[in-house]
Amino acid sequence: PTMNQTLEQEISQLHAEICAGLADPTRILILYELASGPCNVTQLTETLKLNQPMVSRHLKVLRERGMVGATRVGPAVEYRLSDVRLIQAMDLLRAVLRDNLTRRAELMGAIPEG
Q: How far from chain centre, in Å, is Cα 110?
């Protein structure tokens, strides 16, 4: 495959796995919570103020995409962030978004009202 084909395949896989996993803000919140350490579903529901079925459903999506790992600890399953670079990537994207919003606000302020 050519470099463009390889890049296309990587982008397609990135979108299918990572972007789809990050498509819901609740999943992003779960990842940030797991960045501070492993948690079980009950801990996540209490911290994020969400119901258990919703948290479990989002964790399933994150697990299927390899973004979180799970380990049985006694009767509970403990979830952990699979790669800290996910948080670093989201922090970079948030910084880009903040800069874009600031730039837009500055542009809007520079437009004379008329």
A: 34
Give residue-wise pLDDT tens across range 10-53.
888 877 788 888 889 999 999 999 999 999 999 999 999 999 99
Sign, Cα dihedral of 100, 105, 109, 114: positive
Contact 78, 70 (CB under 8 A): yes
* CATH class label, 3-82: mainly alpha
Q: Give CA torsion, residues 86, 58, 60, 41, to 10 deg.
A: 100
Question: What is the rounded distance in angstroms from the CA atom of residue 35 to the CA atom of residue 37?
Answer: 5
109/103 Cα distance (integer angstroms): 10
pTM: 0.81
As a whole number of angstroms, the distance between CA 22 and CA 54 comes to 15
Every domain of the chain and the residues it spans: 3-82
